[in-house]
């Protein structure tokens, strides 16, 4: 099995490469960012991609977005996201890509047996699906709670919106600038995936989502 690894930590990248070699897995490229991952896959056509989620330059979801992009072009490309986190943005898209086949999402801290891990990689490369139960739990929890994507501060801002406070009033209550409140509101509207329309209507939809969550 020929594998491309994307991991920004040199020690983890080299350690994973050495570990896979023990199980007759050939690491044909080991790179440190999402752009290099895209190039390596294009050049080497691997049997499997293993990618971290958070990588340079932003250390947010670059690896996951690259994996989704790769699966758009090659839906059959086996991909395993190996991360310390459940990154909710794009995780659903990755797991749904390619009809849910040849895909995996594993948490680094929960890999307790390297032989089992190697077997999981082979299962994904063979068309199977391997997802850590904790990943499933968190994604299902987010799906039930539309506000689950929001940060605590964004929830506070949305709560004040629902109470009818203006941006200026919310800024005074939270000891923020009006620009800071406006930025949080923009994040709320984006994270709730509200349809693009005028901002007033989107604010109303956001408040309705908040009120529904409080009544559940």
UniProtKB/TrEMBL annotation:
<feature type="domain" description="Response regulatory">
    <location>
        <begin position="2"/>
        <end position="123"/>
    </location>
</feature>
<feature type="modified residue" description="4-aspartylphosphate">
    <location>
        <position position="52"/>
    </location>
</feature>
<protein>
    <submittedName>
        <fullName>Response regulator transcription factor</fullName>
    </submittedName>
</protein>
<feature type="domain" description="HTH luxR-type">
    <location>
        <begin position="143"/>
        <end position="213"/>
    </location>
</feature>
<dbReference type="Pfam" id="PF00072">
    <property type="entry name" value="Response_reg"/>
</dbReference>
<dbReference type="InterPro" id="IPR058245">
    <property type="entry name" value="NreC/VraR/RcsB-like_REC"/>
</dbReference>
<keyword id="KW-0597">Phosphoprotein</keyword>
<dbReference type="InterPro" id="IPR039420">
    <property type="entry name" value="WalR-like"/>
</dbReference>
<keyword id="KW-0804">Transcription</keyword>
<keyword id="KW-0238">DNA-binding</keyword>
<dbReference type="InterPro" id="IPR000792">
    <property type="entry name" value="Tscrpt_reg_LuxR_C"/>
</dbReference>
<dbReference type="Pfam" id="PF00196">
    <property type="entry name" value="GerE"/>
</dbReference>
<dbReference type="InterPro" id="IPR011006">
    <property type="entry name" value="CheY-like_superfamily"/>
</dbReference>
<dbReference type="InterPro" id="IPR001789">
    <property type="entry name" value="Sig_transdc_resp-reg_receiver"/>
</dbReference>
<dbReference type="InterPro" id="IPR016032">
    <property type="entry name" value="Sig_transdc_resp-reg_C-effctor"/>
</dbReference>
<keyword id="KW-0805">Transcription regulation</keyword>
């Amino acid at each position: 099995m020929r594998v491309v690894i994307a991991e920004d930590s040199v020690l983890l990248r080299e350690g994973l490469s050495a570990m896979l070699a023990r199980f007759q897995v050939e690491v044909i490229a080991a790179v440190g960012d999402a752009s290099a991952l895209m190039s390596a896959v294009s050049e080497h056509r691997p049997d499997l991609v293993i990618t971290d989620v958070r990588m340079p330059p932003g250390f947010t979801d670059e690896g996951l977005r690259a994996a989704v992009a790769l699966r758009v072009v090659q839906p059959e490309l086996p991909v395993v996201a190996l991360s310390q986190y459940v990154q909710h943005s794009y995780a659903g898209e990755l797991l749904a890509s390619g009809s849910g086949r040849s895909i995996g999402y594993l948490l680094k801290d929960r890999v307790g047996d390297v032989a089992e891990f190697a077997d999981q990689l082979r299962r994904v490369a063979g068309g199977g699906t391997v997802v850590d139960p904790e990943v499933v739990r968190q994604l299902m929890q987010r799906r039930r709670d539309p506000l689950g994507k929001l940060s605590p501060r964004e929830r506070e801002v949305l709560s004040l919106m629902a109470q009818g406070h203006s941006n200026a009033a919310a800024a005074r209550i939270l000891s923020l600038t009006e620009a800071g409140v406006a930025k949080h509101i923009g994040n709320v509207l984006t994270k709730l995936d509200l349809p693009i329309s005028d901002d007033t209507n989107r604010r109303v939809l956001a408040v309705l989502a908040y009120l529904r969550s409080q009544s559940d």
